[in-house]
Amino acid sequence: MFDDIPDSHRSGYVSLVGKPNVGKSTLMNALLGQKLSIVTRKPQTTRHRIVGIHSGPEHQIIFQDTPGIIKPEYGLHNAMMDQVTTAIRDADLLLFLADATRDTPDTLSLEHIEDRPALLVLTKMDLIPQEQALPLVETYTGLRGFEEVVPTSSVTGFNLDVLLDTLRDMLPQGPPFYPKDQISEHPQRFFVAELIREQILEYFHEEVPYSTQVNIVEYTERDGSKDFIDAEIVVTRKSHKGILIGKGGQALKRLGKAARHTIEEFLGKSVYLQLHVKVRKDWRNREQFLRSYGYRE
Ligand SMILES: Nc1nc2c(ncn2[C@@H]2O[C@H](COP(=O)(O)OP(=O)(O)OP(=O)(O)O)[C@@H](O)[C@H]2O)c(=O)[nH]1
């Protein structure tokens, strides 16, 4: 599988960690040049460890996007924080993200990364006036022995090439872990479920998106016809089911249309998407559901 790998080849795991909404998923997508991890304006969008692989002739960086660091309030949160702990433990190097518009050196949850090797990445620098940029970076310089402080913008692409070069140089020498043309390790149906969840976060408010789980019940590729996808949306309460379906089924219809568009864009082909809503009381606190929905090994 790995012919012609030069001795100078470098490879390793780089985990993106930080508080909710700092821009972890957006940064990983921008570094990969492809949308793998869903992004919304709402905190706690990411629930899983999401792997994205960046390969070149001389390197392979395996990024892991993680849920934001939070204080757990229910079982799902505990499972999310376990994913963060695993991603920190498994990494050769951490990217610890701080939001340039909101954070200060005192507001970061640095205790979670203990003494692991890390770079501090300042995100959203496009929103900072130019004259404030340098003084802002200086406030973080020397903090906790971070190897470097790298100001970035995932929107303009500012400094992303510098960040990639720095990562390539810092990873240990070794062969690739995955074939060079592989971009992730999750099956297609995982991404389809995530894209539906992204639209739920977009269209519904308050508790509803946070109580929601999306499972792909059937995914059938059909020659000469659209792929068939049957997805169930699980909620914790009957009232949430009513909100998702809406008057005369209008809300679910609108959601289905929006999700179908993003899925088709992602897959590059037409699909037939069928959605239905189920109530599973308190699934976020029940271990058997957390396991079967893929939050626990
Ligand atoms: N202007 C600007 N906005 C950004 C940038 N990076 C991320 N954002 C926005 O910040 C919000 C949160 O981004 P995400 O990538 O979902 O943040 P996250 O850290 O993965 O969030 P969680 O999943 O909650 O942990 C979204 O509205 C993004 O569009 C950036 O470089 N510039």
Automatic annotation (TrEMBL):
Q: What are the GO cellular component annotations?
A: cytoplasm; plasma membrane
All copies of the KH type-2 domain together span 204-281
Ranges for domain Era-type G come to: 10-173
Report residue spans for region: G2.
44-48
| Chain residue ranges for the region called G1 | 18-25
Q: Name one GO biological process term.
A: ribosomal small subunit assembly
One example of the protein's molecular function in GO is:
small ribosomal subunit rRNA binding
What UniProt keywords are attached to this protein's entry? Cell membrane, Cytoplasm, GTP-binding, Membrane, Nucleotide-binding, Ribosome biogenesis, RNA-binding, rRNA-binding
Which residues does the annotation say bind GTP? 18-25, 65-69, 123-126
**InterPro entries recorded:** G_ERA_dom, GTP-bd, GTPase_Era-like, KH_dom-like_a/b, KH_dom_type_2, KH_sf_prok-type, P-loop_NTPase, Small_GTP-bd
Q: Name one Pfam family in it.
A: KH_2
- What is the protein's major site of localization? cytoplasm
Stretch list, region G5: 152-154
What is the membrane topology here?
Answer: Peripheral membrane protein
- Entry's PROSITE patterns? G_ERA (PS51713), KH_TYPE_2 (PS50823)
Task: Please give the residue ranges the record annotates as the region G3.
Answer: 65-68
Location of the region described as G4 in the Swiss-Prot/TrEMBL record: 123-126
The record's subcellular location field reads: Cytoplasm; Cell membrane
Q: What does the similarity note say? A: Belongs to the TRAFAC class TrmE-Era-EngA-EngB-Septin-like GTPase superfamily. Era GTPase family.
What is its quaternary makeup? Monomer.
The record's listing under HAMAP family reads: GTPase_Era (MF_00367)
Give the protein's biological function. An essential GTPase that binds both GDP and GTP, with rapid nucleotide exchange. Plays a role in 16S rRNA processing and 30S ribosomal subunit biogenesis and possibly also in cell cycle regulation and energy metabolism.
Please give the name of this protein.
GTPase Era
Which organism encodes this protein? Longimonas halophila
